[in-house]
Design goal:
The protein has 444 residues and is mainly α. It is built from 19 helices and no strands. The C terminus is likely disordered.
Length: 444
């Protein structure tokens, strides 16, 4: 508990930020459909625009995630957290003011631009902050608690949407985004990477050189944007251990499937079962409650007992089942039953991040998490380009056969590939600092 007190303000910041972000999810589908296709339950334009937005956001985060992780190692987690948390306020404020067609397009453009920096960066930096302050033998449990707090925010955000009007939802969301940023700025202490939180042991003959930081002293005067890792640096990091490279493959396919699911699911449910914001909120509350219980209560017990590697595979197995059941839903109650499977599916992400965090030194957590987030961003680009056309096609009257959930079934197959790869991951001791000191990431 003493260790957790060091990240308590991070937990509150993470909760408030995610509360603000998640509460608009059930509403945005209705707002998009009303702006683009008033009075209709199926709109290919909305699906394509959403997919295009996600692809552009993925391209932006592909560059931004490694860069922000790298900067946070040099300038501090708190300083870099200010950037995405502040930018997140802008698009929410637009729809808080008005939700007519032209305001929606303004939101669409601003959201696309700001999300290039915001999407996933708060989670990436929060994970690095936790890794700075929590020993490796407890990191999986605390990552699970952090994910559980995110799930709790997911529940609270969606539950509040259930009782708010559309206009009030965006106004409250924008206000909470401001509150989370102010709280973080005032209360969150800067995270200073501390070697004492790592269980790594180096022999006297091993160099105490940090991963990707060799020759740091000779690079002090290099320009700020050259701290972006090069292709060679990223490849060297991926080759630093077989566990890291296997985890990277799992991360890619896991994110490919997850983005495919969420790019398709709401439009699929609206077209097939005429869901509205209230039913979307109910469904997400179920997912959030099961995820919170799982990550806050089950994961801290199971992770030390059976290991993160096995727990990762369990999470991916149930994630596959979760998606496949959505895809074949034959009645409006089936999506609610499918949502219950997220009780175990939510294990995948925190276990994966914990495995990654143990493969690098205490001064490279931002780089490692940024590298994995960058690979996830590649999936963010590919997934909408694949699944959005599939969703629009199989929801239309021109589909070659009747299977409106076909794109979701394909997303489940991506998780199946991740599951097979996860079974190859074996528990390995953390790498020593000298094993991956061949990289030469430029530092400011």
């Amino acid at each position: 508990m003493v260790e957790l007190s060091g990240v308590s303000h991070l937990f509150m910041t993470f909760f408030l930020y995610n509360f603000s972000t998640f509460m608009v999810i059930p509403v945005i589908t209705d707002v998009t459909m009303s702006a683009l296709c008033p009075g209709e339950d199926e709109c290919s334009l909305a699906v394509y625009l959403t997919g295009f937005q996600q692809a552009i956001m993925g391209l932006g985060t592909l560059v931004a995630m490694p860069l922000m992780g790298n900067f946070s190692d040099s300038y501090g987690r708190k300083a870099i957290l200010m950037v995405p948390m502040t930018l997140n306020i802008i698009p929410l404020a637009v729809l808080a003011y008005n939700r007519t067609k032209y305001y929606f397009y303004a939101y669409y453009v601003l959201k696309t631009l700001t999300a290039m920096v915001c999407e996933g960066s708060v989670q990436c930096l929060a994970l690095a902050y936790v890794a700075d302050n929590i020993p490796e033998n407890r990191r999986a449990s605390v990552f699970g608690i952090l994910s559980g707090i995110g799930s709790c925010a997911f529940v609270c955000g969606n539950l509040s949407t259930r009782f708010l009007s559309t206009a009030s939802t965006f106004q409250v969301s924008a206000l909470l985004a401001v509150v989370s940023t102010v709280y973080m700025r005032v209360f969150l202490p800067e995270s200073i990477s501390n070697d004492s939180v790592s269980t790594r042991r180096c022999t006297a003959g091993e160099a105490s050189v940090a991963l990707l930081d060799e020759n740091r002293d000779s690079r002090k005067n290099v320009g700020i944007f050259k701290s972006m890792p090069s292709y060679h640096d990223t490849v060297s990091l991926l080759r630093s251990s077989s566990t890291f490279s296997q985890a990277a493959v799992v991360a890619f396919f896991l994110n490919l499937g997850d983005v495919g699911l969420y790019a398709s699911l709401l439009y699929y449910l609206k077209a097939c079962f005429h869901f509205n914001k209230d039913q979307f909120a109910d469904l997400m509350v179920i997912c959030g409650i099961t995820g919170t219980i799982s990550q806050m209560l089950l994961m801290p017990v199971l992770a030390p007992a059976i290991g993160e590697e096995r727990l990762l595979s369990i999470g991916l197995l149930f994630g596959c089942a979760h998606m496949l059941l959505y895809s074949i839903a034959w009645a409006s109650w089936v999506p609610y039953a499918s949502a219950m499977l997220s009780l175990l599916a939510v294990f995948a992400q925190p276990c994966l991040r914990s495995i990654v965090s143990k493969q690098v030194g205490p001064n490279e957590q931002g780089k490692a998490q940024g590298c994995i987030s960058g690979l996830c961003s590649v999936a963010n680009v590919v997934s909408p380009l694949v699944f959005s056309p599939l969703t629009a096609f199989f929801l239309s009257a021109d589909a070659p056969f009747h299977f409106p959930g076909f794109s979701i079934a394909c997303a489940g197959s991506a998780l199946m590939i991740a599951l097979v790869q996860s079974l190859m991951i074996r528990a390995a001791p953390p790498i020593s600092g000298s094993k991956a000191s061949n990289c030469s990431c430029l530092e400011p």
